[in-house]
Amino acid sequence: MPTILGQNQYGKAENRVVRITRDGTTHHIKDLNVSVALSGDMDEVHYSGSNANVLPTDTTKNTVYAFAKEHGIESAEQFGVHLARHFVTSQEPIHRARIRIEEYSWERIEAAGEGRHSFVREGRETRLAQITFDGEKWEVVSGLKDLTVLNSTASEFWGYVKDRYTTLKEAYDRILATSVSGRWRFNWTDDEQEMPDWETSYEETRKHMLQAFAETYSLSLQQTMYQMGARIIDHRDEIDEVRFSLPNSHHFLVDMEPFGLKNDNEVYFAADRPYGLIEATVLRDGCEARIPVDLTNL
Question: Is 162 a catalytic residue?
């Protein structure tokens, strides 16, 4: 049976690069995990094994480290833009580059004495970015994962469908907790537009996300999730699409009656599985969804 080659890409995955910027005795740190994927005129390497159009993956690794030195790392998004532009414009057979980046946060340790060069790894979320370039158009999707949040009240869940298998009791005062995995797509698509301030955009988007979580009196996790996305769209003009995947981290009241005690919404059992998984996309009116439903494939 005849066969043909379908969509394909190659590159070097998970290049860990740490860039220290020295400003006198004050140092700044950027800690990234960079994955490069390239595609283009690559049929022959698959059909005949000819490497004539193949830039070695080892070269892409070296480019990541060289660019960290030559260009510095202002932000994950800016660094990805530099890399994607380089691969597409410097190698004729390469038509498309996709750069995926995870960024790990460090907090400065303030100590007596000279120098500000000591850091502790923050217990914050992991920042994410994906930059795609085809020689003409850009697509930049930023995001985060493992942002753990909790409301100890101001959450209810009742009035749901019940059948003979339903055992869950209605709740009028419950804990709402989740670990946020979210992505947002920018409407910056070409070099004629003004590039967003990536660092400010990330911090402001994160702020609006958290404020919406804290300020929404929740009748469902879906309602809270929609408010988080809507607040981002309403306040950040550079963003057209937000997608969330939120596990419902269930907290169940412990039955204290066998001990002769009353549990007045004070003691809970935190169950890590199974868990409800709530997902949705929030779009600016008139825009189309482009972020994959499965965020692990981003």
Answer: no
95 as an active site residue: the answer is no
Alpha carbons within 13 A on the beta-carbon side of 106: 17
State the catalytic residue, choosing from 12, 30, 82, 86.
12
What does the pLDDT look like over 35-71, one tens digit per residue? 999 999 999 999 999 999 999 999 999 999 999 999 9
- Is 166 assigned a catalytic role? no
Confidence band of 117 (pLDDT split at 50, 70, 90): confident
End-to-end CA distance of the chain: 33
Identify the active-site residue in 61, 86, 208, 250. 250
**In the predicted model, is pLDDT for residue 181 greater than 80?**
yes
pTM listed for this prediction: 0.94
Q: Of the listed 27, 28, 57, 95, which one is catalytic? A: 57
- What is the SS3 string spanning the chain? CCCCCCCCCECCCCEEEEEEEEECCEEEEEEEEEEEEEEECCHHHHHCCCCCCCCCHHHHHHHHHHHHHHCCCCCHHHHHHHHHHHHHHHCCCEEEEEEEEEEECEEECCCCCCCECCEEECCCCEEEEEEEECCCCEEEEEEEEEEEEEECCCECECCCCCCCCCCCCCECCCCEEEEEEEEEEECCCCCCCCCCCHHHHHHHHHHHHHHHHHHCCECCHHHHHHHHHHHHHHHCCCEEEEEEEEEECCEEECCCHHHCCCCCCCCEEECCCCCEEEEEEEECCCCCCCCCCCHHHC
Encode pLDDT of 140-154 as tens digits. Answer: 999 999 999 999 999
| Percent of the chain surpassing pLDDT 90 | 92
